[in-house]
């Protein structure tokens, strides 16, 4: 069989390798992707809350307290500089978090600890336990922001360092009376417990959302695989029914003795049934160009029966449903079964149109593809003509 195939203008000879078609499977990675998407959405909400709390506390509580006690601070410019540095760190970390990234935790945490010790020293003994010493209540929220999505132990270590700095300031300012130490303990507990709860709660909620989304996505994958397997089973049953119907009448007639194998009409019917059988079997193969592969199967059978045939393919066809391919291939397949002398099968394909044409010498005998003339058959048109010299069969699909 002479074969020419390729895109228009190339003429490269190709013959697609055949692989057995496997049932469609849902992508297991979709479960992980969906789970991470849900987790990220939950985490983004918690990030917004953390950034808003830190900056709002810094602006609404820390700044008015600092300005109100300005004259009573031991070193007001130093305390104000610490406030500005912390605001800059929080703003930069917040932008990074809200943009989906993570801030450089170690460097920013170290800078916040330096601000912590500096402000405690600059606030002075009289403002040690007042709101003017804004690092008591506000700095823990900035720890939370710069350590986002890091291990909880990192936050606890940073809060421990903060508590140690505060204790050193209490001792250096000689505020070691039982009342001062009790106040210190209350400050440490009160300013640390809520950020720890928010940090741990956000991580737990994100993990729970990810697990639930993963479970739901995995269930959808299982359901999709079950549906794909059921579709594959129905397709196999439908194909088996078509194959059985194609050969049943001929085989039944031969078995009952009602048909003579030497009769040209019976041989033609058997050849037609075999050609259709080959084409239907070829439907289940996984190849780059299923239509051309199915036509090759019919052409190979015709060639084995002594018919010289040239198969020419031009262009890259779009993906076509099985039913459309059947309507494109069935009439040329039937015409090949009755062809004599020679045959030329041409497939011209584009993104919106596919045309299959078969030309054979005309001869006495009925048309294998039905009466001459054209008629619409859904999205596929079928034309058949004969003029005493040649027979021409064409099927055409156009995208609607």
Fold blueprint:
Layout (H helix, E strand, L loop, with lengths): L1 E3 L14 E2 L8 H40 L7 H23 L6 H19 L11 H12 L5 H21 L5 H79 L7 H19 L2 E2 L3 H15 L4 E6 L7 H16 L5 E7 L3 E9 L11 E5 L2 E7 L3 E9 L2
Parallel strand pairs: 1-4, 4-5
Antiparallel strand pairs: 2-3, 5-6, 6-9, 7-8, 8-9
Could you walk me through the main structural features you see in this protein, from its secondary elements to its overall organization?
With 400 residues, this protein is of the alpha+beta class. Helix content is 61%, strand content 12%. It has nine helices and nine strands. The strands form two sheets. A seven-stranded mixed beta sheet has the order 1-4-5-6-9-8-7, covered by helices on one side. Strands 2-3 form a two-stranded antiparallel ribbon. Strand 7 and strand 8 form a beta hairpin. Helix 1 runs antiparallel to helix 2. It is rod-shaped. The two termini are 34 Å apart. About 8% of the residues have low confidence.
How would a textbook summarize the main sheet? 7 strands, mixed
Distance between the termini: 34 Å
Percent strand equals 5-15%
Poorly predicted residue ranges: 7-26, 369-378
Structural class: alpha+beta
Radius of gyration: 40 Å
- Strand and helix order: EEHHHHHHHEHEHEEEEE
Q: Biggest sheet, strands in spatial order? A: 1-4-5-6-9-8-7
Short description:
The chain has 400 residues and is α+β, with helices and mostly antiparallel strands.
List keywords for this structure.
12% strand, 400 residues, alpha+beta, 9 strands, seven-stranded mixed β-sheet
